[in-house]
Amino acid sequence: MRLKELGSALECNFDGYASNMVAASKNSATKLIQLLLCYIPGFRDTAIYNGNYVHLYKRVQILVGDVWAAYGKYKPKDGDMNDTNIYYFNDLSKCTMFADYRIPQLLRYMGIMVYTKKLCDDIDNYVEIQYSSEEEVEIRACTIIAVEYLKKVINTIIIDQQMNTDLILSIELDWLLWNKGEQMKETIPPHHRTRTIFY
Fold first, then answer.
1. What share of the chain is helix, strand, coil (3-state, %, to 5)?
2. How far apart are CA 85 and CA 77, in angstroms?
3. Which of 191, 169, 4 is nearest to 103 (CA)?
4. Strand locations in 7-152 (E)
5. Pairing status of strand 52-55 against strand 46-49
6. Catalytic pick from 80, 91, 100, 122?
């Protein structure tokens, strides 16, 4: 379904080329996310929690992150009009981690996230957690918050110790935690089970 949405959006609005959509974002990750959400409804990962809209946007952010990782990591030279890279995003730091199931599984194991006994029992017994339910939204939203705190601590260490490295982005920390979770997935408590197209 998303492939049809993407094909139709590109054909009707961007002369059939994904690169034209990326170029229209003018080096802004948030603008590209807005374009994708506007033209491709299958990316609209939104829930209602206590009467408020919660926008988690896992898949659309991971798409933008993957485009950047594959093509956009070098920054164009200032003032050089010939040195352009439409895949470089000036505001990638505004993206969060990609909230799904593997990282909360790892953070629970590490004691960074603590669940109620009932939620632990349900997850450990493979009881399905309904998409957009209070528990499912809380797991994903709390994962985003936890990763933001971890990022802040890591970047404080980088600054304090004057390390010769860039500050870490949320999406880079996601990749590190995801890989660690994948390595440990068989030896730690299970992840929550949710039927959804948004993970």
1. 55, 5, 40
2. 10
3. 191
4. 46-49, 52-55
5. antiparallel
6. 100
- pTM, 2 dp: 0.90
Pull the structure tokens for residue 7.
């094909």
Chain segment 149-182, per-residue pLDDT in tens: 999 999 999 999 998 888 999 999 999 999 999 9
CB 19 within 8 A of CB 70: no
**Nearest-angstrom CA–CA distance, 10 and 38:** 12
State both tokens at 168. 């870490």
On whether the CB atoms of residues 97 and 171 are closer than 8 A, the answer is yes
The whole-angstrom separation of Cα 42 and Cα 111 is: 33
Asked about 100 being catalytic, the answer comes back as yes
Tokens in use for 76? 């164009």
* Cβ contacts of 61 within 8 Å, gap of 6 or more: 33, 95, 96, 98, 171
pLDDT value, residue 159: 94
Overall residue count recorded for the chain in this entry:
199
